[in-house]
C-alpha cells in the first residue's frame, strides 16, 4: 500500500517540480530580456559622447562643425559660470536616445499586432547589434548619432513588445522584467566605465558588448517556456482566420451562458480589437499614463537639467566624481524599487508622482540658492529619486495587467509604455533653457 501510494504521488511531484522549473525559467528569462533591452540605451548615453570626443580630437576642423551640428551650445564656453558648467547640455544626447523610442511607442501599438513576436525579437536584437557596430566603427558624427537612434529603436520596440508578451505568462514575470530593466542601468554604467577604466578603448568595449543582443535571443528562444497561445511566427490576424466557425461554436457550446459574460483567456481569440476599441482603452489608461509620465518628467529633469549643476567645490570628491556618484546611486535606487514588486505593491501612483515633483522643486531651488550643505545630502535625495521612479514603473504595469480585461490587456500594456518616454522627452526639452539660464549667471 505504501509503495503504491508513493508511485501515485510521483507524477504529482514531477508535475509540481516542472511547474516551479517553468516559472523560474520564465521569471529569469524576462529578467534577462529587461536587462538586454535597456542595456544599449544606457550605454549609448556614455559611449556616443566618448566616440564624438575622439572624433573631435582627431580632426579640429571637423570638430567645430560637428559640435554645432549635433550639440546645443549653451552658456559660456570659457566656463566662467559659478556653476562650473559644461557648455553642452547633457540633454542633447538624451533627446537623440529617446525621441525615436517615443515615436515608436506612439504609433506601434496600433499596428504591431501584425508582426509576430519571434520577428519582433529578431529585429530588436539586430537593431541593438547594429547600434554597437555603428558607434564603434563610426568615422563621422552622423554615424554615431545614427547608432544612438538604432539603440533607441531597439529599446522602444522591445519594451512595448515584452510588456505585451507578459500577458501570455503568469503575472509574476512582470517583477522579473522590472528588475531586469533596473539592473540594466547599474550593469550598463558599471561595465562600460569599468572596461574603459582598465584601458580598453570605447570601440573595443562596444564590440565586447555585442554579447548582449545574443543574450537577448538566447533568453527569448531558449530560456522562456512559451504557451501554445503565443503568436510566435504567425500574426494574430492569421490565427483568427485559422479558427473556424465550427471551433468557435464548440467553444460556445461548452461554456455556460453566465460564464460568457465573464472575461476568460479565450476572449483573445474572439477577434482583433477595432480602432474605436483601442481609443476607448487608451482613454481608460490615462489614469496610469499621466502619473507615470509626470514621475519620469521630474526624474529626468533632475538628471539632465540639475545634476551637473549640483557641484560642491569644498568636497573631497571632484566634480566628475560627484556627478558619477549621483548617477550610480540613482541607478541603484531604480534597481531596488523595480525589484520590489514581490514584496510591496503601491496603488497610489499619484502620490509617487507628487513626491517626485517635490524632489525636482527642492533640487531646482538648491541649484538656484545653493542652500544644501554637502554632496552627501544630494546622494540621499537622488537615491530616493531612483526609488520613486522605479516603484512608479513596476506598479503602473502591474495594476494595468491586473485591472484590464483579458482581451484588451496585450494592447493596453503596449500603449501605456508611452508614458515614461513622453515624460523623458519633455524633460530633455525643459532641461535646455534651465541649463542655459544657470550657466549664463
From TrEMBL:
Annotated Gene3D superfamilies: MFS general substrate transporter like domains
Segments crossing the lipid bilayer: 30-48, 121-142, 148-169, 181-200, 206-226, 285-303, 323-342, 349-369, 375-399, 411-432
Chain's gene name: cln3
Matching InterPro entries: Battenin_disease_Cln3, Battenin_disease_Cln3_subgr, MFS_trans_sf
Disordered: annotated span: 1-21, 245-271
Major location (coarse): other
GO cellular component: early endosome; late endosome; lysosomal membrane; membrane raft; neuron projection; trans-Golgi network
Keyword terms, alphabetized: Endosome, Glycoprotein, Lipoprotein, Lysosome, Membrane, Methylation, Phosphoprotein, Prenylation, Transmembrane, Transmembrane helix, Transport
One annotated GO biological process: membrane organization
Annotated organism of origin: Dicentrarchus labrax (European seabass)
Record's subcellular location: Late endosome; Lysosome membrane
Bilayer topology annotation: Multi-pass membrane protein
Protein name: Battenin
Pfam family, one: CLN3
UniProt family annotation: Belongs to the battenin family.
Amino acid at each position: 500500500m505504501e509503495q503504491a501510494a508513493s508511485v501515485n504521488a510521483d507524477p504529482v511531484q514531477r508535475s509540481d517540480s516542472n511547474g516551479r522549473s517553468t516559472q523560474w525559467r520564465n521569471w529569469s528569462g524576462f529578467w534577462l530580456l529587461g536587462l538586454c533591452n535597456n542595456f544599449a540605451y544606457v550605454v549609448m548615453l556614455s559611449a556616443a559622447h566618448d566616440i564624438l570626443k575622439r572624433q573631435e580630437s582627431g580632426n579640429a576642423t571637423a570638430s567645430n562643425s560637428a559640435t554645432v551640428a549635433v550639440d546645443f551650445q549653451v552658456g559660456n564656453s570659457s566656463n566662467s559660470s559659478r556653476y562650473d558648467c559644461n557648455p553642452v547640455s547633457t540633454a542633447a544626447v538624451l533627446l537623440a536616445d529617446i525621441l525615436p523610442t517615443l515615436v515608436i511607442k506612439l504609433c506601434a501599438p496600433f499596428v504591431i499586432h501584425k508582426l509576430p513576436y519571434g520577428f519582433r525579437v529578431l529585429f530588436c536584437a539586430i537593431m541593438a547589434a547594429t547600434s554597437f557596430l555603428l558607434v564603434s566603427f563610426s568615422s563621422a558624427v552622423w554615424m554615431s548619432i545614427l547608432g544612438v537612434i538604432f539603440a533607441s529603436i531597439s529599446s522602444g520596440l522591445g519594451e512595448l513588445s515584452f510588456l505585451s508578451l507578459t500577458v501570455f505568462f503568469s503575472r509574476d514575470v512582470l517583477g522579473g522584467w522590472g528588475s531586469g530593466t533596473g539592473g540594466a542601468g547599474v550593469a550598463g554604467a558599471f561595465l562600460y566605465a569599468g572596461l574603459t577604466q582598465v584601458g580598453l578603448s570605447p570601440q573595443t568595449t562596444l564590440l565586447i558588448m555585442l554579447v548582449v543582443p545574443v543574450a537577448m535571443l538566447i533568453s527569448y528562444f531558449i530560456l522562456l517556456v512559451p504557451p501554445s497561445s503565443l503568436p510566435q511566427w504567425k500574426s494574430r490576424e492569421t490565427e483568427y482566420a485559422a479558427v473556424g466557425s465550427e471551433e468557435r461554436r464548440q467553444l460556445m457550446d461548452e461554456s455556460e451562458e453566465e460564464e460568457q459574460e465573464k472575461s476568460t483567456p479565450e476572449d483573445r481569440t474572439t477577434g482583433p480589437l477595432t480602432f474605436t476599441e483601442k481609443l476607448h482603452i487608451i482613454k481608460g489608461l490615462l489614469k496610469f499614463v499621466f502619473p507615470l509620465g509626470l514621475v519620469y518628467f521630474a526624474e529626468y529633469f533632475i538628471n539632465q537639467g540639475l545634476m551637473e549643476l549640483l557641484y560642491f567645490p569644498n568636497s573631497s570628491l571632484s566634480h566628475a566624481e560627484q556627478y558619477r556618484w549621483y548617477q550610480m546611486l540613482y541607478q541603484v535606487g531604480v534597481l531596488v524599487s523595480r525589484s520590489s514588486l514581490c514584496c510591496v505593491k503601491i496603488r497610489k501612483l499619484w502620490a509617487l508622482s507628487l513626491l517626485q515633483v517635490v524632489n525636482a522643486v527642492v533640487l531646482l531651488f538648491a541649484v538656484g540658492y545653493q542652500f544644501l550643505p554637502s554632496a552627501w545630502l544630494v546622494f540621499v535625495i537622488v537615491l530616493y529619486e531612483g526609488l520613486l521612479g522605479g516603484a512608479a514603473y513596476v506598479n503602473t504595469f502591474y495594476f494595468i495587467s491586473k485591472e484590464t480585461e483579458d482581451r484588451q490587456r496585450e494592447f493596453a500594456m503596449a500603449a501605456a509604455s508611452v508614458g515614461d518616454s513622453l515624460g523623458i522627452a519633455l524633460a530633455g526639452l525643459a532641461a535646455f533653457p534651465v541649463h542655459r539660464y544657470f550657466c549664463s549667471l
